[in-house]
Design a protein that fits this description.
Order of helices and strands: EHEHEHHHEHEEEEHEEEHHEEEHEEH
Number of strands: 16
Bound molecules: flavin-adenine dinucleotide, iron/sulfur cluster
Largest sheet: 7 strands, mixed
Distance between the termini: 15 Å
Helix content: 10-25%
Strand content: 15-25%
Amino acid sequence: MWEEGAEVAATEDQGSARPTDAVVDVLIIGAGASGAAVAWSLADTRMKILCLEQGDWTKPTDFPTNGRDWEARRYGDFHISPNRRARDTDYPVNDASSSMKVANFNGVGGGTILYQAHFPRMHPSDFKVRTLDGVADDWPIDYWTLEPYFAENDRMMGVAGLAGDPAYPAHEPTLPQVPLGRTGTRYAQALNKLGWHWWPSDIAVATREQDGRAKCINLGQCTLGCAQGAKASVDITYWPHALRARVELRTRCRVREITTNAQGFASGVVYYDPNGVERFQPAEVVILAANGIGTPRLLLNSASSRFPNGLANTSGLVGKNLMLHPWPQVSGYVEEEMDGDRAPPTVLWSKQFYETDRSRGFVRGYTLQFIRGNGPAHEAITNLGTGRLPWGKDHHRVYRTQLYHRVMAVVCSEDLPEEHNRVTLDPVLKDSHGIPAPRIDYTIGENTRAMMEHGIARATEVLAAAGARNFSTSPSSPGHLLGTARMGTDPERSVVNEWGRCHDVKNLFIVDGSIWVTGGGVNPTSTILALALYIADSIKKRLATLFD
Ligand SMILES: Cc1cc2nc3c(=O)[nH]c(=O)nc-3n(C[C@H](O)[C@H](O)[C@H](O)COP(=O)(O)OP(=O)(O)OC[C@H]3O[C@@H](n4cnc5c(N)ncnc54)[C@H](O)[C@@H]3O)c2cc1C
Ligand code: SF4
């Protein structure tokens, strides 16, 4: 389709002359979770594959846990909000009209650099909520379509856990479980008292040496990055394998828009190279892996005369149905010292309230996730903020009853898709390259509110059964980014088909969290990665007929 080495790009939608790179077979936008998995899987085709990523690699020595100021950096260059972190590799997000804030990381590894590595899969029921509960839509695929890809992903990432959880179809975690420790044992005893389901969490942390990575030595809070290399972020799992298989990854390259040719195929992207020079990268196939906010932002910013409402947006659904997983948290304090920040934070889950029971006053459900605790500065700062830790003569006495005495449960609540929850282009705010920033409009729905209240009450019951007192509840913290370019078989009601191809643009694929039809009540990354592997396999199977 493109002549290699052509100097000037000339497509329907780019009028201006700009330097043009050699054509590639596959261009992936974003080197985060799904971008890494799709790059690795496609590498065995021997196609020329290039990934453009706006951020940098993070060296193990860069992680805050290497230094004494590790907790302070949580509020600076390792903040989970791109607006607070404000690195030149970040783009701003206008979330002023959203009841939940946005968390992400822009760099090789994407969100997995900062994630907790809690690694539940979606449940079989999550793929058919319309059939089971009469709400939202069924997915065009089911759990069993993804099952082999969940297993492949577990092997690539290394997942610690215990086989036999009755809440799931049988599956075999690849590594021994993370020990329950003092805190986990306390939660387990409390849940046993109540007679509620619990199971050690699946966690993508190496509990023994895994694929050249050292094992977890309980250094501290995994969310600030794991200098030990035990936490499975995709920069140290998928990417080294993909690079060895000759995938090219260019960092500090920010894509501005996807271009199309006269036939309506994607022809490549316009991007800014590390020197800020605007370039054109032609490609035979383009794959978007820029997450549930970055992907609709790019599609909307790729409007043209042929696609006036944004690329791949004939359905009008690009950016709509944003789901963020509301995430309230209940804390309390016990008399004995617990694990605090000394081990991977999430230790076990309860699926007691996961499946629909209409007598609760809502449909679908949530996971209760139990957390070990906080580090010293975080404990002090959060308690000063809520007034639970006084200044003055009682300061140290009270603090001693708090540090490492906190027990915590979060309610990972299913968030149903609603079109008014959406990503659009902000008319004013721009990133450092002048590209319009995304704006988020989001409110928590009634069903989810009822679910959250139920979850907060149940979480408090468990913590009370664990001997905790002095409860407090935090509102929903920043959530996951899902649903803004949904999958489906009907082009009027979805953006991509059942194997990730855009209905409107046949050589354009989406593999990140935006293609989710519903959100489930679990952290999403295990399922995002399995989906990316499934789409890569679907592409491979259809290579000969891809443009038909
Ligand atoms: C603090 C925190 C804790 C979390 N904890 C968990 C957890 O315990 N378990 C779990 O399952 N999930 C967790 N998550 C969520 C998890 O990180 C995401 O679900 C996952 O990373 C999403 O994968 P993705 O491929 O959709 O996008 P991402 O991983 O976000 O990757 C998108 C990539 O695209 C790049 N990009 C975007 N736009 C452009 C552009 N225009 N040009 C070039 N590059 C671009 C970005 O820089 C980024 O690297 C957590 C997230 C955070 C922030
Ligand atoms: S607890 Fe383990 S996985 Fe987490 S940061 Fe420390 S060594 Fe890494």
